[in-house]
Amino acid sequence: MSWYYTPKPTVLPAEDFDASADANALRAAMKGMGTDEQAIIDILCARSNAQRMQILETYNSELDRDLIEDLKSELGGKFEDVIVALMLQPEKYLCKQLHKAMDGLGTNEEALIEILAPQTNEEIKKIVDCYEEMYSRPLAEHLCSETDGSFRRLLTMIIVGARDPQGTVDADLAVEQATQLYNAGEGKLGTDEEVFYKILAHASFDQLEIVFDEYKKQSGRTIEQAMKDELSGELYDALSAIVECVQMAPHFFAKRLHKAMDGAGTDDGSLIRIIVSRSEIDLQNVKDEYEQMYNKTLLSAVRNECSGDYKRALCALIGEA
What is the rounded distance in angstroms from the CA atom of residue 103 to the CA atom of residue 116? Predict the structure, then answer.
């Protein structure tokens, strides 16, 4: 299965880890006049999330201070955003990002897609439980109030855990599903969107890979080509994100990173979110894919796009190798 790849992180647990020494070194970096930003980067960008959580606890118990509050008072701008993001457990961080995407005027549909499309049912369940705990509001309800139409129905299906478990495969059903997709799109006038989002939200990634192969056999075109002709807007973006994650998640994230840095200005929110959230999962795979796709390293792209401590923090998470 091509969506099975060996995930390679860029951030690993530090050897000879000492939470107390790190907590005291961080306090020293922020005490008195000025702040030693490099010391903060050297510690927090080179520890696993579990180790950072231990530092957080030790800082509080030994120094009777709140590390996140101290960091917020000493740091600023996008550098602060990176460091504070590192100090949250992964699902809490993603919940904050989902909330931010829906809070206030307008909705950041791209962020919703990027966070939700790649997740397995197990990961979705953690996010859903954590969201309600953090905001005393079900994620499904908040999503429904901020989105509409087929896009809303697709996201709702993803977060209620409609997807079959990993490894669920039925070759005969795949033939049938490929036919249903063809009949709902290329095989008729107009498009039956419901067929697309139901199959792509229900079937396991393993099953979808077989469905897409079968689709090509039956129609002579790829599922991406068909969807481009048949769908549009947020629904198209979300379904094509699922297709990309089925085929190769690091490719999907490499594309998002390139888009975040392409043209005038930088989408710092996406840049930080992807680098922080994938650093302990598969950021090395994303880096390899990025270099293959764009003929330059992710590190050099970030160095050209960002500056100061913000740049140094992201580059520390990306790693040199």
Answer: 17
Task: Copy the structure tokens of residue 85.
Answer: 């993001």
Q: Say which amino acid occupies 239.
A: L
Widest Cα–Cα separation across the chain: 71
Give the number of other Cβ atoms within 10 Å of residue 198's Cβ.
Answer: 18
The residue assigned the tokens 């118990």 is 61
Identity of the residue numbered 203: A
Could you give the 3-state DSSP secondary structure of residue 295? coil
Contact between 27 and 40 (Cβ < 8 Å): no
Report the C-alpha gap between 279 and 273 in whole angstroms. Answer: 10
Q: For 283-295, b where at least 16 C-beta lie within 10 A, e where not — what string?
A: bbbbbbbbbeebe
Query: What DSSP designation does 188 have?
Result: S
pLDDT tens digits, residue range 17-35?
999 999 999 999 999 888 9
CB 83 within 8 A of CB 36: no
DSSP string, 263-282: SSS--HHHHHHHHHHHTTTT
The token pair that represents 33 in the structure block: 């006049």
Q: Which pair of structure tokens corresponds to residue 296?
A: 């330059």
Q: Which tens digit of pLDDT belongs to each residue from 205-223? A: 999 999 999 999 999 999 9
- The H or E element that residue 220 is part of is none
Q: Which residues contact 200 (CB under 8 A, 6 or more apart)?
A: 154, 208, 239, 242, 243
Amino acid identity, position 317: L
Q: Are 43 and 68 in contact (CB under 8 A)?
A: no
How many whole angstroms separate alpha carbon 173 and alpha carbon 195? 14
pTM over 0.70: yes
